Amino acid sequence: MATEExxxxxxxxxxxxxxxxxxxxxxxxxxxxxxxxxxxxxxKVDYAIKIDGEIRILIECKxxxxxxxxxxxxxxxxxxxxxxxxxxxxxxxxxxNFYTDLEAPNKLDARxxxxxxxxxxxxxxxxELRKFEKVSFDVSAILATAERLKYTSGVKQVxxxxxxxxxxxxxxxxxxxxxxxxxxxxxxxMLTGVxxxxxxxxxxxxVKNRLSSALxxxxxxxxxxDEPVEEEPEVVTTEEEREGYMIVKAIVxxxxxxxxxxxxxxxxxxxxxxxxxxxxxxxxxxxxxxxxYIGLFDGExxxxxxxxxxxxxxxxxxxxxxTAKKYSGE
Length: 330
Fold this sequence. Notes:
By secondary structure, the chain is α+β, with helices and mostly antiparallel strands.
């Protein structure tokens, strides 16, 4: 992926497709986006994502050989201020940097609030990316965690740097608590090495304590097992249930905040709840049998209706919205 076009085709478009966007619909994913009153004539942003009729995400791509830096934000910076975009993504196909305007309204922050590497995925990254899915996109929900993500990441970088190279101010701070004599250049040099070693020892001790605790818990469990116990069948969430959940969520998103809608799978059905509360059922997907049903709760009790396909869930949109409306004011 030596070129920018290769990054777009091989990484960015599949990435957007995985989030549910119609990459070949130019009214939704707009390539080579331009806007009036931008700093340089003829300047374009690689992609603009339109959600509910408004530009919400801007994307700028660079070749994979490019190390992403602040100078690459210029186009995004200018476009962010003249559109309704709330998020900007800068990527070289391997690293994705997500930006917003936490520090000043309509002014893109210089530092990203979220960064991920496609070669180093984990569950936490997937959780954050799901917030950018088309069916569940919610600006307020993303911003609610963006500030925490941004400053947590920044603090971790500062701590990592202090571990490797303790600053003079930090060494003096520590010395003030453990050293009573005059801090000469020789003492400062000695304490710098001590601080570096102590940092690593603290981390190692913490890891050892966690391992010891985990091993002790494991041994205790093993000792308590006297005879084989028949395991209960594991609850498995099917792809069909996930898709059904996303459809229900999309249907009611204008009635109730998507972040309040939670899926809780059970052995006999897949529950869709408001506020993760069993007393606030929105729907149930009875998909674990040959004849599939959807359970609706706009009446006094659950009413089960046959659905031959996932598309038939849309036939019950009004009833789902009516149920969601009952909880929207809570």
